[in-house]
Write the structure tokens for this entry.
Amino acid sequence: MIRLRLEGLTRRFGGLVAVDSVTLDVAAEGVTAVIGPNGAGKTTLFNMISGFVPPSAGRVLFEGEDITGRPPERIAARGLIRTFQLVQLFQNLSALENVAVGRHLHTRGGLWAALARPGWARREEAEVDRRARDLLAFVGLGDRAETSAAVLPYGQQRLLEIARALAAEPKLLMLDEPAAGLNAAETRALSEIIRRIAERGTTVLLIEHDMPLVMTTADTVVVLDFGRKIAEGAPAAVRADPAVIEAYLGGAEAAHA
Amino acid sequence: MTNLRITTSPDRVRALLRLLPGAIGIALVAYALLAGGYLISVVSFGLIYAIFVTGLNLFMGYTGQVSFGQNAFAAISGYASAILTATYGWEPLLATATGLAGALAVALVVGYPTLRLKGHYLAMATLAIGLIAYEVAVQWQSVTQGYMGISGVPPLGIAGFEITSERGNLLFLAAIAALGVTAAALIRHSRVGRAMAAIAGSEDAARALGIDVARYKLLAFLIAAVYAALAGSLFVHVVGFVSPEVFGLHMVNLAFTMLYVGGIGTVMGPLVGAVVIMLLPETFRAFKDYQDLAYGAALILLLIYAPRGLASLADLLRRRAGEGRRA
């Protein structure tokens, strides 16, 4: 089954073609990683899929439905949840409250429920609290629930952002460089968490620079270079692909000649 | 045993510190009731402002937006109260309700396009709304009587039972302010309040989690407008008079001072700030010519030593104790 399909997705910024007619199928099962040198267009691709940047051309199909150019909150409501390259936590809230915000799409309490606190709203809040604590435990932050998000160490902020995204029960979870700024041990723990998320039936699409993480975590690797897709396949096959080696080590070959 | 006591006592201290603003507030109202005279008026105005600032805090503190124009909604409802009762002889309660509805309608019409703006642009647009309301109050003389203002506005009451004593007013205002603060606290700790706080934290992240940012900004703006309108009508009925100056820029200035001194984004901050800022100049009466100087110096000291406001002093003490570490 195909969770996400990109058809000729293109984004131009003035004369620069950041993403150049990328066509891609993301299977519902497993982890797909998008890799590529800096400036290859990975984040622009993510921003187009999640609705933050409108494409210049092409289509985004989510479970067969055209979601091209919809606003981010509508795409999120469809089950596509993303994280950010620079962690975007709600610094003014505790870790627990951050994850609770992630339950927004699956709860319905409005102003009246806030003021009158009818039975269903109290049960809903209790359920939000329970689920948020479960998710904090899932990413290993069970003991930081009451800590302000702003004072968490960087690695834990990354994990908190993932827990918050999971609270929205995504069908497709998009992680933008989740290992950036993590040490080796944290990266291994992250890899483990990503695998477990995929095993629970959530499609994971990630952008990553960290090759060990990609090689141990991804089932499929897509390589972008100068906005174009230059390779796609299993991690081992992609690593051996001459075009990929050229893209990453092009300077070295030029030096040989 | 001693170990246990050492680890639990800061929690208990913190809990007590959190209750402190409320306790002081109740004590103050009680003291004003007993002392009577001028103090009753000062505390009454403080409570009216507390309602106004609580609404402003919902929009600015919880949701992270800026508005310099909330006085417009106080003016709309305040003038509606004055005109409908003094000129047309309506019941004060009905006039207030009409004023609230009118302010809400204007907030909806104004907020819908304005809230697409961000930061400084939103601040300028809201400032303009406040100035327009002021100009209308000055220029529309046939209805508002211009700078002269409208006097003889009856006090609040239902079917003949009017609140005529100053003490009655004080108790009534204390009850309304308590309700207003409680409602704000309930909103803050709900799904709606979390969505607002998320917008204050990061609009992009909020949208990525499915929060309709425009909708919640508008909701916060409307709630703030209702608080402002309520404060405006209460003021007019308590004082019995309205003029453009009542809801002028001075009101904005005062409300901002209260919000920051009390603690922006905290539940009790607006109440604490409003009462303290009302009482502070009175406290320095003994300084005579230097009263304003002492008031200014006190404000600066407050903002230096309690930068997040008086209501967050509990947090400050906790930080001093070395518990919270900034990353």
Notes: Residues 19-313 of chain B form a domain with the ABC transporter involved in vitamin B12 uptake, BtuC fold (CATH 1.10.3470). Chain B is about 75% helix and 0% strand. Chain B has one domain: 19-313. The radius of gyration of chain B is 21 Å.
